[in-house]
Amino acid sequence: MASKKDVAVTRDVLVEVLASALKEQEVRIEARFDQKIDDLKQNIRDEMYSVVNGAVSASEQRMMKRMDEIKEEIIDGITEIIDEGILPQISDLRTDVDHIKVRLQMA
User: Fold this and answer.
1) 56 close to 63: Cβ distance less than 8 angstroms
2) 56-88 as b/e: b if 16+ CB within 10 A
């Protein structure tokens, strides 16, 4: 039969072993928890990045489409100015030059 001293020593050893095992388990749990938190942060960061890039991409496409429309409006405006304002004046000047040439040859 074990004496009280043997029971106390055994109890102390068991308490120490259990405390050590619990400490190791706590360290492993904490490491896994930290890893899970890091994974969650990375997932959130990746999701936000994809959402922002999707929004930027759509915004860029709308902006490029609008820029193309504006470019076409500018080209149409310049063409209209040339057709209605400049070319008729050139034609009138050619006619005037032709008249002047005819008169100068007669003189």
Assistant:
1) no
2) eeeeeeeeeeeeeeeeeeeeeeeeeeeeeeeee
CA torsion through residues 70, 76, 79, 84, sign: negative
Both tokens of residue 35?
A: 């890893």
pTM (2 d.p.) = 0.45
CA distance 9 to 85: 111
Residue 3, phi then psi, degrees to nearest 5 = -85, 170
**How confident is the model over 13-56, as pLDDT tens digits?**
888 888 888 888 998 999 999 999 999 999 999 988 888 777 77
Distance CA(99)–CA(102), nearest Å, equals 5
Q: Which residue type occupies 63?
A: M
- What element of type H or E holds 79? helix 4-81
82 vs 103: CA distance, rounded Å? 30
